[in-house]
Amino acid sequence: MRYNNSCRRRTPLDANPASSTEIPQKTGMTTKKIVIIGAGPTGLGAAYRLHELGYENWVVYEKSADVGGHATSHVDENGFVWDEGGHVIFSHYPYFDRLVDKVLGKEIHERIRESWIVKGDSWIPYPFQSNLRYLPKDVQVSCLLGAARAAANGGGKDAKNFREWILATFGEGIAEAFMFPYNSKVWTTPLQKMSKSWIADRVAVVDFKRLLENVLYERDDVGWGPNSKFRFPLHGGTGEIYRRIAAHFPQKIHTGKKLAEVDAGQRRISFADGSGDNYDFLISTAPLDLFTHMMKPADTRLRDAAQGLEHNNLLVVGFGLKKKIETGRCWIYFTDAEMPCYRATYFSHYSPFNVPNGDTEKYSSFMCEISFRVGESPDPEKVLDQVMAGLIRAKMLEESDRDRVVSRYQRIVGYSYPIPTLGRDQALAVLQPELLEKGIYSRGRFGAWRYEIGNMDHSVMMGVEAVNRIVAGEPEVVFHSS
Fold first, then answer.
1. What domains does the chain contain, in order, with CATH numbers?
2. What's the predicted TM-score (pTM) here?
């Protein structure tokens, strides 16, 4: 699942929030030019921090026509708002919270998470492993026996990969019923080729006594995780956060600038349109594998290392309906192969203004996500039909709702998940130190290439802390966290 690390880490900014704009700059730093590649959460986090500090010599270049990166939002021709995948606001960091509060003010919705897993005809509250009582009796027994054996054997500390970790932590029953099929959908990668090093608190592990009590006492157990409460912008989707951050310094952001070449020796970048710029420090949020191929002269060692980085892509599809849907549900996970998406979101529940004119008495919307491998080319229209059939099978929609669809949305999102393969950490151990020696901070979801610190709050803070390190020598806590 797209779980999130629930531990709270302190950063230098958290220690004394009142003085967060008063970091002294290193001698001579005011003349150093800082160039930021990418106006997504990390790039805009860095930009906002420079703006906050009163630092003047910096600029942001963004390849797209708008800001936000993969956290941007789009409005279709029918007036429905869509994100590039499922995003909600929750945070480990007071700085990020204050920034969101500042730019959104009261224009924000708070929700209690209600998420479910659909497996066959069963609906199981999230997290799956804590709510086995909703399963058929034979599956319950299989899951409990497997969990008991796993607990007796000491869990997954000796596992060599993600698949082994799942089996050793949850047992065969839960693995086969949920963890294997779901994670295969999300990652599109053999689980035995994935490391277990990224997991930390992103996956709810099992307490066998608690699992057994939940079944025997027919008790729901749904509060796990940091996003049990979350927030969402009232207007404009997730992208509204980043549009409002960018509005503080529009003259500093140059869109339509696709990075083409990086001369690390001369500290100069060039763009596809023939223009370029010089830098003293470069904060890059470009995908790390692509970035290494832009470096001139070619660095064979870095390119070879980057071959150890793998990712997948995303197809986002949506249905805007002329129908009112009253529900407390937020998002639904799917395990069955017949349903191509791994997650469906009741997107109109996040904010009424995700539908035309904010009229949820008349309209509703579903947004669904489908991972696919690099090199694959799914047919969006065919997938839309398959997803609609899956929503009807799950009784989230009725057959008659086909005639109520007024918007069919689709968007391909390249670079969706940075996959924590067995070779990832070895590759990063070569790439990141060498880039840093050249004055290049590769940060963000695909700049750092570490899924475990790839949420919006992590990403913004990576940009903020890169600036703090450049201008004041402060440590980068988030980037170096495990």
1. 12-65+255-309+423-472 (3.50.50.60), 127-216 (no CATH)
2. 0.93
